[in-house]
Write a structure and sequence with these properties.
Elements (H helix, E strand, L loop, with lengths): L1 E5 L6 H15 L3 E6 L13 E5 L13 H16 L3 E5 L1 H15 L5 E6 L2 H4 L8 H10 L2 E4 L2 H10 L7 E2 L15 H7 L5 E6 L8 H14 L2 E6 L5 H10 L6 E5 L4 H6 L3 E4 L8 H8 L4 E4 L4 H4 L6 E4 L4 H12 L2 H19 L1 H17 L7
Parallel strand pairs: 1-2, 1-4, 2-3, 4-5, 5-6, 6-7, 8-9, 8-11, 9-10, 11-12, 12-13
Helix pairs in contact: 2-3, 3-5, 8-13, 11-14
The structure holds ligand GMT.
The site of ligand GMT has 21 residues, from helix 1 and helix 4.
Length: 379
Amino acid sequence: MKIGIACYPTYGGSGVVAAELGKALAERGHQIHFISYAMPIRLDGFIGNMVYHEVEVSSYPLFDFPLYTPALASKIVEVTKFERLDILHAHYAIPHAISAYLAKQILGNNGLKIVTTLHGTDITLVGLEPSYLPVMKFSIEQSDGVTAVSRFLREKTLTNYHINKDIQVIPNFVDTKKYQRIDAANIRKNLAPNGEKVLIHVSNFRPVKRVPDVVRIFQLVRQKIPAKLVLIGDGPDRSYCEQLARELDLIHDVKFLGKQSELVCLLSASDLFIIPSQSESFGLSALEAMACEIPVVATSVGGLPELVLHGETGYIAEIGDVERMAKYAIDLLTSDAKYKLFSAASRRRAVEAFDAEKVIDLYEHYYEHVLSGQPALTE
Ligand code: GMT
């Protein structure tokens, strides 16, 4: 198949999923064309049948705001014409799905099918704003196929937008051959020189991630056991978190590493992943940690309970219940036997339910269904 992928290139789950999906599809022999305003992260390495097309957004004194939506539509038109795309896969609905719809209208009846994957705040937050809602609803309804990364997100879409449409749940995935625990003794020695336990969190530090809760959880954990905290990523709340770590006199035990491209070695040097989000449609970073044998302490929101099995691969608590999450963390980190069971179960769940090979199969089958005009697959 010839597949165009429109996505955000930035540090965030939807761009990661789009890039990993495109690479895997290219390795299976499909022609893949990424379309974005910058090179998507994780699009490393050369694969012959995978190319990247950059969207140029020109400025003009009249344009107070960059006009990305029409520029993206024009690039989709160009790539579809020259490369004869079968499918345009829009990752994160705003604005990719409406740009794809516009391109399809411009192209006329050339057979291009649009598949839109809903990722999270496109549905739960941004898309609900009055300035976007009608366009969101329309672009989802007009897509030839729609997938959501969790059952939670599918239900939210159907109820929030009053949409009567088949939405296929295709969960996020992890390459469990690449994401597996490796010997990271040197990194561990650097992070925790005196054998401390290592807690880790990876995110884009947006308020919805509640990263200050990670720092507060760590404060309670460190009162009971020797521990270090590693924070990976960057975003609006990072400065506040650094300030909080100083105020709580934790700064010597908390490492802010910023954005990192090599996560496996850092995850392999850690013991527990904390994800105390206010809203999380899936939680890809938690899945990557689980593949590296790390249990997860999470909140009971969105798709997280579909990923983290309470009492088996980690624990789940209410949003903001820092004390309970700290209690769970201490419980796991102080019981070797229980920790080993949770750690093995985390890896097993990642391999059995979310391995890339299986989920890429689901996408391939879904594309075939959309191209054949058949109704959606069922779960
Ligand atoms: O929706 C967002 O906040 C952005 C998006 C992203 O690009 O990081 O994250 C969402 O998509 C990820 C990949 O499918 C999911 O793993 C995240 O749970 C989801 N984020 C939220 O729902 C907050």
